[in-house]
Amino acid sequence: MVGVDRAAAAWALAISGVYSAVSLAGIAAFGAIISGSPGLAITGIITVVAGVLPVCLVLIGIRRPRVHAVAARAISFALRLSQRVVRRPAGNADEISSNLLEQLTSLRMGVGSGLLVASMALANWLLDLGCLICAILAIHATVPWPGVILAWAVGSGASSLNLTPGGLGVVEIALGASLVAAGLPAGPAIAAALLYRAVKLGLVLAVGGVTLLIIGRTEPQVVEPTL
After folding, report:
1. Residue 11 near residue 104 (C-beta atoms within 8 A)
2. What's the Cα-to-Cα distance from 25 to each of 17, 52, 158, 217, rounded to whole Å?
3. 227 pLDDT exceeds 50?
4. What does the pLDDT average to over 184-195?
5. 175 vs 116: CA distance, rounded Å
6. Calpha distance 167→138 (Å, rounded)
7. What are the residue ranges spanned by the domains of the chain?
8. Averaged confidence pLDDT in the chain
9. Are 199 and 135 within 8 A, CB to CB?
10. Contact at 8 Å (CB) between 193 and 176?
11. Cα(190)–Cα(199) distance, integer angstroms
C-alpha cells in the first residue's frame, strides 16, 4: 500500500480478507440453497469459518499480554530469518516487531466503518456475479438461474487458490465446468467463462497499470514508523 505504514497495511489486508471471505461464503451458501444443495452450503460455511476464525482470534487476542508476547517472538524470529536470507529489513528485529505490534494493537474499527467495509465487500462480489451473468447474456445464452450463483462461487473460489497468476487457466476451467453442471451447454459455457475472465482480468490489469503510472509520477511520501 502506498503512503500507509506497515501496521496499517497489515491490518487493512487482514480485515479486508476476512470480510471478503465471509461475503463470498454468504453468497455461495445462498446459491447452494436455491440450487437444491444445502449440504454444499454447510460445507462451504464450515470451510470459510475454519479459515477466517484463526485470523479473527489473532486480531482480537493480540491485545492480550500473553498472546502479544507470543506474536512478538514469532515476528522477531521471522524477521531474523529474513535478515539472514535476503538482508532485509534493516534494524533490530525485536524493536521492529515491538513497534509493529504496538501500532497494530492501537488500530480500531468503529461500527460504522465495519458496516461500510461489509457492504463494500458484498457489493464487490455481487457486481462480480453480475459480470458473469452479463457475459452469459452477451453471447445470447440462457442464464441457468438456479445454479449460476453456485457456478460463479466455484470459479471465484478457484481464483482465490492462486495456483497460477491471476488464476489464469484454472478459473476458466473450473467456471466452465460449473456452468455446464448448472445446465448451460458446453460451447456457451466456455464462451461465457472466457468473456467473463477477459473483462474481469483485463480491466484489473488495465486499472492496475494506469494506477502504477500515476503513482510513479506523483511519488507520494510514505510514512514509516521510526525503527
Report:
1. yes
2. 12, 11, 13, 39
3. no
4. 93
5. 30
6. 23
7. 6-61+109-218
8. 80
9. yes
10. yes
11. 14
